[in-house]
Amino acid sequence: MRxxxxxxxxxxxxxxxxxxxxxIATPDETHAxxxxxxxxxxxxxxxxxxxxxxxxxxxKVIEAECAAQRRLVMVGFMRRFDSPHLALKxxxxxxxxxRPKLFKGVHRNSEAPSDFKRExxxxxxxxxxxxxxxWLMKSEVEEVTVRGAHVDPKVDANARDxxxxxxxxxxGGLATIEAYVSASYGYEVSAEVVGDEGTIxxxxxxxxxxxxxxxxxxxxxxxxxxxxxxxxINELNHWVKSLMEExxxxxxxxxxxxxxxxxxxxxxSLNSGQPVRVSIPEKPEIxx
Length: 288
What we know:
This protein has 288 residues and is an alpha+beta fold.
C-alpha cells in the first residue's frame, strides 16, 4: 500500500507527477479554481457540485476546456447514477409516456446547516433537481419564478429554507421544484415526469413496509448519504472506468455551468419577487 504524503496546497497535489486524476470535495467556493488547475495540467477531475459559486468562474472553466479541446471535467450530480432515477430516465427514453411535458421534483432535508444562507438552498440543494430536470426532460430553462418562505426560527431570518420554483422550458414544457431544508421528519427526494401519454414516478430503493400499531410505515432516511450511498459509489466506479477507457460519463462542465445559470436566476427571482428570464449561450462544440 502506498504511503500518504501530505502537501501544502491543492496545486502542489495536482501538479505532482504521480497524480493521474483528481476528486474535488472541498468547500464550494474553491471548486472553480481547483478545477482550472486540473485543466491546466490536463488531468481529469470529478468536481462535486456546484462547479462554481459565481457564473463568471464557471464560464472560465468552460473556456479552459474549450481551449484545451478536451472534456476533462465531470460534475458530481450523482442522481444520474441513482438506480430509481436511471430507471425513470430509461422509461422516458423508451417512450413509455410519450413526450415529457412536466417535471415535478421534491427535495427535502431534515435540518438546515448552521451556516445556511439565502443562496445555499439553490447552490447546494435545488441545483441537483435542476440538473435532474434538464437530464430527464432534455430541455433548457427559459424562465424561472420563485417564491420563498422562512419556516425554521433557527434559520437566519434573511434566508429562505423553503422555496417553490416554477420553470418554463423550451418547447412548451414546465417544471416545478419544491426545495425545503427544514422538513424535520427526514431526508426525501422524489421526481415525477408527466408525458402526453402517461406519467412515471420512481419507487424508493431498499425500503421495507412495516405494519405495526395500526399503521403501515416506511422508514425515511435521516440524512442524504443513507439515501444516495450507492449512487455515489456507482458515480465513482463509472468515472474511474471512463478514465481507463478514455471516454466521458455523467454531467460535464457545460451541465454544471447551465445548472448554475438557472440556480442564479432562481436567486434573482426570489430577491425581486418577479419572473427572471434565463439566457443560456450557444453550447460549444466539444459538449455536443
